[in-house]
Amino acid sequence: MQVKLIYNKMEKVLNEKESLDLIVKTIEQTRRRVEKNAGLPMLIFGYLSVLTSLVVGFFFSRTGDYRYHILWAAIPVLGWILFAITGKNRSRETEVPRTHIGVLIGHLWLLITGVMVLCMAAAFLLRGFAAPFIFVLLTGLGVAITGLVVRYKPFIVCGILGILLSFAFLWLTGLWFFPVLALVFAVMMVIPGHLLQHGLHKNRAA
Amino acid sequence: MRKELDPLLHSPLRLTIMSVLVSVENADFTFLQQQTGATSGNLSVQLDKLSTAGYIEIEKTFRDKKPRTVCRVTDKGLDAFRQYAETLKGYLNV
């Protein structure tokens, strides 16, 4: 239950314990409200990555046209657009602020996205550039670091799993390449994203 | 000798405002009002007091042609808040 503090003109004087309790309750209450949809970015980018892997795989395997790889660009472009739209819908009535950790994580993912875009460009220019390996490695690193910063075990575990699985893409080729890629993105991002959202909703209901 | 508690922070509403602001990057007036449950007038008065002391910064902007007041804690305010919490812990031996 949310603690509402009603103040009138005659302010009550707090004793030391009440003051400390007030600080703890307020910080906890603010954190819960701000973190309400903390798993959403992971779900947006996770589902987009899974979907793009399958779409690129489908068209590439049917046509063999290398240009279908341009569709990978949909992940950062659509991802940040969807993230901005959902953020705007959530904050239609009130601007829900971000925590300092949230800002830090946002900057981390912007950096990772920037490096990925550069890798995408390199993959088009240089033949044999191991782009899928680097994408999965960077994503796994991002998820693991996010988990370490917010101290959330599923992110740490799934991120490390992603880092380890990324090396498979140095060898993996053929028909299974894209479905496996989609599966790895699901393990790294979609599953921990849902776990986080479920946990946050459970906490709020309690 | 016991350390004195900062009188500016030793008030329920100002302490709540500071506790919200140390938790986030910044917060607008509506969010602060929702989190504290205070009336607009009372909240404005307390925000002015914290701003005059240099504990918070108040920025008045516009969003979708509507005025918006954004508050953020300053380094001085953060130090004062930390000091206040440490003094409280000292009193309570926690």
Walk me through the structure.
The complex is a heterodimer of chains A (206) and B (94). With 206 residues, chain A is an all-alpha fold. Chain A has one domain. Chain A is built from seven helices and no strands. Chain A has helices spanning 16-34, 40-63, 74-90, 100-125, 131-150, 153-166, 177-205. In chain A, α2 (40-63) runs antiparallel to α7 (177-205). The longest helix of chain A is centred in the C-terminal third of the chain and has 29 residues, at 177-205. Chain A is elongated, with a radius of gyration of 21 Å. The termini of chain A are close together. The model of chain A is unreliable at 1-6 (pLDDT under 50). Chain B has one domain: Arc Repressor Mutant, subunit A (Orthogonal Bundle). Chain B is 54% helix and 19% strand. Chain B has a three-stranded antiparallel beta sheet. In chain B, a hairpin with a 2-residue loop joins β2 (56-63) and β3 (66-73). The longest helix of chain B is centred in the last third of the chain and has 18 residues, at 75-92. The two termini of chain B are 18 Å apart.
Which parts of chain B are unreliable, with pLDDT below 50 for 5 consecutive residues or more?
A: none
CATH class of chain B: Mainly Alpha
Q: What is the approximate shape of chain A?
A: elongated
Say which CATH homologous superfamily of chain B is assigned.
Winged helix-like DNA-binding domain superfamily/Winged helix DNA-binding domain
Q: Total helix count of chain B? A: 4
Class inferred from helices and paired strands of chain B: alpha+beta
Q: Helical content of chain B, roughly?
A: 40-55%
Largest sheet of chain B: 3 strands, antiparallel
Roughly what fraction of the amino acids of chain A lie in strands? under 5%
Radius of gyration of chain A: 21 Å
Whole-number total of structural domains of chain A: 1
Number of strands of chain B: 3
- In total, the number of strands of chain A is 0
Q: Say what oligomer this is.
A: heterodimer
Q: List the strand order in the largest sheet of chain B.
A: 1-3-2
Instruction: Give the total of domains of chain B.
Output: 1
Strand fraction of chain B equals 15-25%
| Helix proportion of chain A | over 70%
Secondary structure class of chain A reads: mainly alpha
CATH topology (fold) name of chain B = Arc Repressor Mutant, subunit A
Which two protein chains have the largest interface (Cβ within 8 Å of the partner's Cβ), and how many residues from each? A-B, 33 and 33 residues
